[in-house]
Specification:
The chain is about 35% helix and about 20% strand. The protein contains eleven helices and 14 strands. Helix 8 links the parallel strand 9 and strand 10. Bound molecules: benzoic acid (BEZ). Benzoic acid (BEZ) binds next to loops.
Length: about 375
Protein backbone atom coordinates (compact mmCIF):
# COMPACT_ATOMS: atom_id res chain seq x y z
CA UNK A 1 0.00 0.00 0.00
CA UNK A 2 1.44 3.38 -0.91
CA UNK A 3 1.40 6.15 1.66
CA UNK A 4 -0.23 9.33 0.52
CA UNK A 5 -0.24 12.57 2.42
CA UNK A 6 -0.43 15.25 -0.20
CA UNK A 7 -2.13 18.43 0.86
CA UNK A 8 -5.47 18.32 -0.92
CA UNK A 9 -7.77 21.07 -2.08
CA UNK A 10 -9.09 21.53 1.44
CA UNK A 11 -5.87 23.06 2.81
CA UNK A 12 -6.62 25.91 5.20
CA UNK A 13 -10.31 25.02 5.38
CA UNK A 14 -11.84 23.27 8.36
CA UNK A 15 -14.53 20.91 7.11
CA UNK A 16 -17.66 20.88 9.20
CA UNK A 17 -20.80 18.90 9.02
CA UNK A 18 -22.64 21.82 7.48
CA UNK A 19 -20.13 22.99 4.88
CA UNK A 20 -21.57 24.57 1.71
CA UNK A 21 -24.95 22.94 1.99
CA UNK A 22 -23.63 19.44 1.98
CA UNK A 23 -21.86 17.37 4.52
CA UNK A 24 -18.09 17.41 4.19
CA UNK A 25 -16.25 14.16 4.70
CA UNK A 26 -14.83 13.33 8.10
CA UNK A 27 -11.06 13.40 7.77
CA UNK A 28 -9.25 10.58 9.51
CA UNK A 29 -5.46 10.83 9.40
CA UNK A 30 -3.38 7.71 9.95
CA UNK A 31 0.20 8.00 11.14
CA UNK A 32 1.31 4.41 10.65
CA UNK A 33 4.33 2.53 9.30
CA UNK A 34 3.87 1.65 5.63
CA UNK A 35 7.57 0.85 5.20
CA UNK A 36 10.25 -0.88 7.27
CA UNK A 37 10.10 -3.66 9.85
CA UNK A 38 6.60 -2.69 11.09
CA UNK A 39 5.05 -2.15 7.63
CA UNK A 40 2.80 -5.21 7.80
CA UNK A 41 1.41 -3.97 11.13
CA UNK A 42 0.45 -0.59 9.67
CA UNK A 43 -1.14 -2.22 6.65
CA UNK A 44 -3.27 -4.61 8.71
CA UNK A 45 -4.51 -1.73 10.89
CA UNK A 46 -5.39 0.37 7.85
CA UNK A 47 -7.08 -2.52 6.01
CA UNK A 48 -9.34 -3.30 8.95
CA UNK A 49 -10.24 0.37 9.46
CA UNK A 50 -11.24 0.60 5.82
CA UNK A 51 -13.31 -2.55 6.21
CA UNK A 52 -15.14 -1.17 9.27
CA UNK A 53 -15.84 2.15 7.59
CA UNK A 54 -17.08 0.43 4.45
CA UNK A 55 -19.46 -1.67 6.54
CA UNK A 56 -20.92 1.32 8.37
CA UNK A 57 -21.05 3.96 5.68
CA UNK A 58 -24.69 4.89 6.18
CA UNK A 59 -24.56 4.77 9.93
CA UNK A 60 -22.00 7.42 10.87
CA UNK A 61 -24.01 10.56 11.18
CA UNK A 62 -24.56 10.36 7.41
CA UNK A 63 -21.02 11.57 6.82
CA UNK A 64 -18.51 9.69 4.74
CA UNK A 65 -14.98 9.03 5.91
CA UNK A 66 -11.86 10.10 4.08
CA UNK A 67 -8.58 8.47 5.09
CA UNK A 68 -5.39 10.49 4.82
CA UNK A 69 -2.43 8.13 5.15
CA UNK A 70 1.03 9.17 6.22
CA UNK A 71 4.00 6.80 6.55
CA UNK A 72 5.46 7.14 10.06
CA UNK A 73 8.41 4.92 9.02
CA UNK A 74 8.34 3.90 12.72
CA UNK A 75 10.81 6.76 13.11
CA UNK A 76 10.52 8.80 16.34
CA UNK A 77 12.66 11.71 15.01
CA UNK A 78 10.07 12.31 12.26
CA UNK A 79 7.03 12.02 14.52
CA UNK A 80 6.63 15.66 15.52
CA UNK A 81 6.72 16.96 11.97
CA UNK A 82 4.43 14.20 10.70
CA UNK A 83 1.86 14.76 13.44
CA UNK A 84 1.84 18.51 12.84
CA UNK A 85 1.36 17.88 9.15
CA UNK A 86 -1.76 15.80 9.75
CA UNK A 87 -3.23 18.21 12.31
CA UNK A 88 -2.29 21.59 10.90
CA UNK A 89 -1.97 21.06 7.13
CA UNK A 90 -4.36 18.16 6.56
CA UNK A 91 -6.76 19.36 9.27
CA UNK A 92 -7.84 15.90 10.28
CA UNK A 93 -10.83 15.41 12.57
CA UNK A 94 -9.38 12.20 14.01
CA UNK A 95 -5.79 11.08 14.33
CA UNK A 96 -5.15 7.32 14.28
CA UNK A 97 -1.67 6.03 15.07
CA UNK A 98 1.00 5.00 15.62
CA UNK A 99 2.55 1.50 15.94
CA UNK A 100 5.89 2.44 17.54
CA UNK A 101 5.98 3.65 21.17
CA UNK A 102 8.68 6.23 20.46
CA UNK A 103 6.55 7.78 17.71
CA UNK A 104 3.58 7.68 20.09
CA UNK A 105 5.37 9.72 22.75
CA UNK A 106 5.96 12.60 20.32
CA UNK A 107 2.57 12.28 18.65
CA UNK A 108 0.62 12.22 21.90
CA UNK A 109 2.31 15.38 23.17
CA UNK A 110 1.02 17.37 20.20
CA UNK A 111 -2.38 15.64 20.14
CA UNK A 112 -2.78 16.54 23.80
CA UNK A 113 -1.88 20.20 23.25
CA UNK A 114 -4.10 20.53 20.18
CA UNK A 115 -7.01 18.56 21.65
CA UNK A 116 -7.46 16.54 18.45
CA UNK A 117 -9.45 13.32 18.84
CA UNK A 118 -6.84 10.55 18.84
CA UNK A 119 -7.03 6.77 18.79
CA UNK A 120 -3.85 4.74 19.21
CA UNK A 121 -4.34 1.44 17.37
CA UNK A 122 -1.12 -0.23 18.54
CA UNK A 123 1.72 1.65 20.28
CA UNK A 124 1.78 0.51 23.89
CA UNK A 125 3.83 3.27 25.60
CA UNK A 126 2.67 2.92 29.21
CA UNK A 127 2.97 6.68 29.84
CA UNK A 128 0.18 7.55 27.40
CA UNK A 129 -2.46 5.88 29.55
CA UNK A 130 -0.42 6.70 32.66
CA UNK A 131 1.02 10.09 33.66
CA UNK A 132 0.49 11.55 30.16
CA UNK A 133 -3.14 10.44 29.77
CA UNK A 134 -5.53 12.97 28.24
CA UNK A 135 -9.28 13.30 27.72
CA UNK A 136 -8.97 13.24 23.91
CA UNK A 137 -6.55 10.26 23.64
CA UNK A 138 -7.77 6.66 23.57
CA UNK A 139 -6.19 3.32 22.88
CA UNK A 140 -7.76 0.39 21.01
CA UNK A 141 -4.74 -1.82 21.63
CA UNK A 142 -2.86 -2.46 24.92
CA UNK A 143 -0.26 -0.92 27.19
CA UNK A 144 3.19 -2.48 26.85
CA UNK A 145 2.98 -3.77 30.40
CA UNK A 146 -0.17 -5.77 29.65
CA UNK A 147 1.00 -8.68 27.39
CA UNK A 148 4.16 -9.22 29.47
CA UNK A 149 2.45 -9.63 32.83
CA UNK A 150 0.41 -12.78 31.94
CA UNK A 151 3.43 -14.61 30.50
CA UNK A 152 5.32 -13.94 33.74
CA UNK A 153 2.40 -15.39 35.64
CA UNK A 154 2.22 -18.47 33.37
CA UNK A 155 5.93 -19.32 33.53
CA UNK A 156 6.06 -18.61 37.26
CA UNK A 157 3.11 -20.92 37.94
CA UNK A 158 4.79 -23.65 35.87
CA UNK A 159 7.85 -23.47 38.11
CA UNK A 160 10.33 -22.01 35.63
CA UNK A 161 13.27 -20.89 37.76
CA UNK A 162 15.85 -19.21 35.52
CA UNK A 163 14.61 -16.83 32.82
CA UNK A 164 16.39 -14.57 30.32
CA UNK A 165 14.66 -11.46 28.93
CA UNK A 166 15.54 -10.42 25.40
CA UNK A 167 13.95 -7.44 23.61
CA UNK A 168 14.31 -4.53 21.29
CA UNK A 169 15.79 -1.97 23.61
CA UNK A 170 13.33 0.91 23.45
CA UNK A 171 10.24 1.81 25.47
CA UNK A 172 8.06 -1.05 24.19
CA UNK A 173 10.62 -3.78 24.88
CA UNK A 174 11.60 -2.38 28.26
CA UNK A 175 8.00 -1.98 29.42
CA UNK A 176 7.01 -5.41 28.11
CA UNK A 177 9.91 -6.88 30.11
CA UNK A 178 8.73 -4.98 33.20
CA UNK A 179 5.25 -6.50 32.80
CA UNK A 180 6.84 -9.95 32.64
CA UNK A 181 8.93 -9.27 35.74
CA UNK A 182 5.86 -8.10 37.69
CA UNK A 183 3.96 -11.27 36.74
CA UNK A 184 6.93 -13.52 37.49
CA UNK A 185 7.91 -11.81 40.75
CA UNK A 186 5.93 -13.92 43.17
CA UNK A 187 7.05 -17.27 41.78
CA UNK A 188 10.47 -17.33 43.43
CA UNK A 189 12.14 -17.57 40.03
CA UNK A 190 15.04 -15.41 38.90
CA UNK A 191 15.69 -13.20 35.89
CA UNK A 192 19.28 -14.20 35.24
CA UNK A 193 19.96 -11.77 32.38
CA UNK A 194 18.35 -8.97 30.36
CA UNK A 195 19.59 -8.58 26.81
CA UNK A 196 18.61 -5.45 24.89
CA UNK A 197 19.00 -5.29 21.11
CA UNK A 198 18.94 -1.82 19.46
CA UNK A 199 15.76 -1.23 17.40
CA UNK A 200 15.36 -2.16 14.53
CA UNK A 201 18.51 -4.33 14.44
CA UNK A 202 17.99 -7.98 13.43
CA UNK A 203 21.52 -9.32 13.92
CA UNK A 204 20.87 -11.92 16.59
CA UNK A 205 23.84 -14.33 16.39
CA UNK A 206 25.76 -13.07 19.43
CA UNK A 207 22.55 -12.85 21.48
CA UNK A 208 21.66 -16.44 20.64
CA UNK A 209 25.15 -17.66 21.54
CA UNK A 210 24.89 -15.91 24.89
CA UNK A 211 21.49 -17.47 25.60
CA UNK A 212 22.79 -20.92 24.66
CA UNK A 213 25.65 -20.58 27.11
CA UNK A 214 23.42 -19.30 29.93
CA UNK A 215 21.08 -22.33 29.56
CA UNK A 216 17.98 -20.72 31.14
CA UNK A 217 14.69 -22.61 31.56
CA UNK A 218 12.96 -20.06 29.33
CA UNK A 219 13.42 -16.82 27.42
CA UNK A 220 10.79 -14.05 27.29
CA UNK A 221 11.08 -11.80 24.23
CA UNK A 222 9.65 -8.68 22.67
CA UNK A 223 10.04 -8.55 18.88
CA UNK A 224 7.40 -7.84 16.24
CA UNK A 225 6.91 -7.73 12.47
CA UNK A 226 10.01 -8.39 10.35
CA UNK A 227 12.24 -8.60 13.44
CA UNK A 228 10.06 -11.34 14.94
CA UNK A 229 10.31 -13.37 11.73
CA UNK A 230 14.08 -13.15 11.82
CA UNK A 231 14.45 -13.91 15.54
CA UNK A 232 12.29 -17.04 15.43
CA UNK A 233 14.02 -18.36 12.31
CA UNK A 234 17.48 -17.65 13.72
CA UNK A 235 16.52 -19.35 17.01
CA UNK A 236 15.63 -22.54 15.14
CA UNK A 237 18.64 -22.32 12.83
CA UNK A 238 20.94 -22.02 15.86
CA UNK A 239 19.59 -25.35 17.12
CA UNK A 240 17.89 -23.79 20.14
CA UNK A 241 14.42 -25.13 19.30
CA UNK A 242 15.29 -28.57 20.60
CA UNK A 243 17.64 -27.42 23.36
CA UNK A 244 15.19 -27.58 26.27
CA UNK A 245 15.17 -23.76 26.55
CA UNK A 246 11.61 -22.57 25.94
CA UNK A 247 11.26 -19.53 23.69
CA UNK A 248 8.26 -17.41 24.71
CA UNK A 249 7.22 -13.81 24.29
CA UNK A 250 4.48 -11.29 24.09
CA UNK A 251 2.20 -12.50 21.29
CA UNK A 252 3.80 -10.05 18.84
CA UNK A 253 6.54 -12.66 18.40
CA UNK A 254 4.21 -14.81 16.30
CA UNK A 255 1.40 -12.40 15.40
CA UNK A 256 0.72 -12.04 11.69
CA UNK A 257 4.04 -13.67 10.82
CA UNK A 258 3.67 -17.44 11.28
CA UNK A 259 3.53 -18.03 7.53
CA UNK A 260 6.87 -16.30 7.08
CA UNK A 261 8.34 -18.10 10.11
CA UNK A 262 7.22 -21.53 8.88
CA UNK A 263 8.21 -24.61 10.90
CA UNK A 264 10.39 -22.50 13.20
CA UNK A 265 7.26 -21.05 14.83
CA UNK A 266 5.56 -24.39 15.57
CA UNK A 267 4.85 -24.93 19.26
CA UNK A 268 5.79 -21.40 20.42
CA UNK A 269 3.73 -20.14 23.35
CA UNK A 270 2.96 -16.46 23.83
CA UNK A 271 0.40 -14.26 25.59
CA UNK A 272 -1.76 -11.63 23.91
CA UNK A 273 -5.22 -10.08 23.93
CA UNK A 274 -6.14 -11.99 20.78
CA UNK A 275 -5.77 -15.44 19.23
CA UNK A 276 -6.73 -16.58 15.72
CA UNK A 277 -8.98 -19.33 17.01
CA UNK A 278 -11.11 -17.33 19.46
CA UNK A 279 -14.44 -18.94 18.78
CA UNK A 280 -16.98 -16.15 19.18
CA UNK A 281 -19.45 -15.00 16.51
CA UNK A 282 -17.90 -11.55 16.16
CA UNK A 283 -14.42 -12.97 15.56
CA UNK A 284 -15.64 -15.60 13.13
CA UNK A 285 -17.51 -13.03 11.01
CA UNK A 286 -14.63 -10.53 11.31
CA UNK A 287 -12.06 -13.05 10.08
CA UNK A 288 -14.27 -14.22 7.23
CA UNK A 289 -14.96 -10.65 6.04
CA UNK A 290 -11.31 -9.62 6.34
CA UNK A 291 -10.13 -12.62 4.33
CA UNK A 292 -12.76 -11.93 1.68
CA UNK A 293 -11.85 -8.24 1.40
CA UNK A 294 -8.05 -8.43 1.66
CA UNK A 295 -7.17 -12.01 0.73
CA UNK A 296 -5.10 -12.57 3.87
CA UNK A 297 -5.73 -13.70 7.44
CA UNK A 298 -6.65 -11.14 10.08
CA UNK A 299 -4.40 -10.69 13.11
CA UNK A 300 -4.30 -8.61 16.30
CA UNK A 301 -3.22 -5.50 14.40
CA UNK A 302 -6.30 -5.80 12.20
CA UNK A 303 -8.46 -6.21 15.31
CA UNK A 304 -6.98 -3.06 16.82
CA UNK A 305 -7.61 -1.12 13.57
CA UNK A 306 -11.15 -2.44 13.41
CA UNK A 307 -11.84 -1.36 16.97
CA UNK A 308 -10.23 2.06 16.39
CA UNK A 309 -12.67 2.56 13.51
CA UNK A 310 -15.48 1.35 15.75
CA UNK A 311 -14.60 4.03 18.33
CA UNK A 312 -14.74 6.68 15.62
CA UNK A 313 -18.08 5.31 14.45
CA UNK A 314 -19.46 5.43 18.00
CA UNK A 315 -18.29 9.04 18.44
CA UNK A 316 -19.83 10.18 15.15
CA UNK A 317 -23.05 8.35 15.71
CA UNK A 318 -23.44 9.92 19.17
CA UNK A 319 -23.09 13.44 17.72
CA UNK A 320 -24.81 12.82 14.40
CA UNK A 321 -21.48 13.49 12.73
CA UNK A 322 -20.75 16.79 14.47
CA UNK A 323 -16.98 16.63 14.94
CA UNK A 324 -17.08 19.92 16.86
CA UNK A 325 -18.95 18.25 19.73
CA UNK A 326 -15.80 16.88 21.35
CA UNK A 327 -17.12 16.43 24.87
CA UNK A 328 -19.97 14.31 23.56
CA UNK A 329 -17.65 12.27 21.36
CA UNK A 330 -15.31 11.67 24.30
CA UNK A 331 -18.18 10.56 26.52
CA UNK A 332 -19.48 8.20 23.85
CA UNK A 333 -16.10 6.51 23.40
CA UNK A 334 -15.54 6.29 27.16
CA UNK A 335 -18.84 4.45 27.51
CA UNK A 336 -18.12 1.95 24.73
CA UNK A 337 -18.75 -1.58 25.95
CA UNK A 338 -18.88 -3.96 23.08
CA UNK A 339 -18.04 -7.39 21.76
CA UNK A 340 -14.79 -7.07 19.86
CA UNK A 341 -13.28 -9.93 17.86
CA UNK A 342 -10.87 -10.20 20.83
CA UNK A 343 -13.78 -10.75 23.27
CA UNK A 344 -15.42 -8.30 25.69
CA UNK A 345 -14.06 -4.77 25.25
CA UNK A 346 -14.31 -1.74 27.52
CA UNK A 347 -12.01 1.12 28.44
CA UNK A 348 -10.45 1.93 31.79
CA UNK A 349 -10.71 5.42 33.29
CA UNK A 350 -7.28 6.02 31.71
CA UNK A 351 -8.71 5.16 28.22
CA UNK A 352 -6.83 1.85 27.85
CA UNK A 353 -8.64 -1.43 27.07
CA UNK A 354 -9.55 -3.74 29.94
CA UNK A 355 -9.35 -7.13 28.25
CA UNK A 356 -8.62 -10.82 28.50
CA UNK A 357 -5.09 -12.04 27.87
CA UNK A 358 -4.86 -15.44 26.25
CA UNK A 359 -2.16 -18.06 26.41
CA UNK A 360 -1.64 -19.14 22.79
CA UNK A 361 0.37 -21.79 21.01
CA UNK A 362 1.32 -22.00 17.35
CA UNK A 363 -0.19 -25.15 15.86
CA UNK A 364 0.00 -25.67 12.09
CA UNK A 365 0.84 -22.00 11.61
CA UNK A 366 -2.13 -20.75 13.65
CA UNK A 367 -2.01 -18.93 17.01
CA UNK A 368 -4.37 -21.25 18.88
CA UNK A 369 -5.93 -20.20 22.16
CA UNK A 370 -4.97 -22.52 25.03
CA UNK A 371 -6.59 -20.73 27.97
CA UNK A 372 -7.34 -17.30 29.41
CA UNK A 373 -4.07 -16.46 31.19
CA UNK A 374 -5.51 -13.39 32.95
CA UNK A 375 -9.12 -12.28 32.65
CA UNK A 376 -10.13 -8.61 32.23
CA UNK A 377 -6.62 -7.30 32.84
CA UNK A 378 -6.35 -3.56 33.43
CA UNK A 379 -3.14 -1.56 33.06
CA UNK A 380 -1.92 -0.13 36.41
CA UNK A 381 -2.15 3.36 34.78
CA UNK A 382 0.06 4.89 37.44
CA UNK A 383 -0.15 8.69 37.49
CA UNK A 384 -3.25 9.11 35.30
CA UNK A 385 -5.70 11.59 36.77
CA UNK A 386 -8.66 11.10 34.42
CA UNK A 387 -11.99 9.74 35.58
C1 LIG B 1 5.37 -0.49 20.31
O1 LIG B 1 6.37 0.14 19.90
O2 LIG B 1 4.67 -0.05 21.23
C2 LIG B 1 5.02 -1.81 19.68
C3 LIG B 1 5.43 -2.09 18.40
C4 LIG B 1 5.08 -3.30 17.82
C5 LIG B 1 4.30 -4.21 18.51
C6 LIG B 1 3.89 -3.93 19.80
C7 LIG B 1 4.25 -2.71 20.39
Amino acid sequence: MGAAAGVGTLAGFTPTKFAIGQQAKVRVGTLLPYSGTYARLGEAITNAMQMRFAQSKEMIGSREIELIKLDSEAAPPKATENTSKLINSEKVDFLVGPVHSGVAMAMAKIAREEGVMTIIPNAGADQITGPLCAPNIFRSSFSNWQPGYPMGRVLGAEGKKRVVLCYWNYGAGQQSAQGFKDGFAESGGEIIKEIGVPFPEVEFQSVLSEIASLKPDAVYTFFAGGGAVKFVKDWAAAGLKDSGIELTGSGFLTEGVTEAQGAAAEGLRTTLHYADTLDNDVNNVFRRNYKEMWGSEADVYAVQGYDAAEMIRVALEATDGDTGAKDDMIKAIENTVYDSPRGPFKLSAAHNPVQNFYLRKVVNGVNEVQSIAVEALSDPAKGCRLG
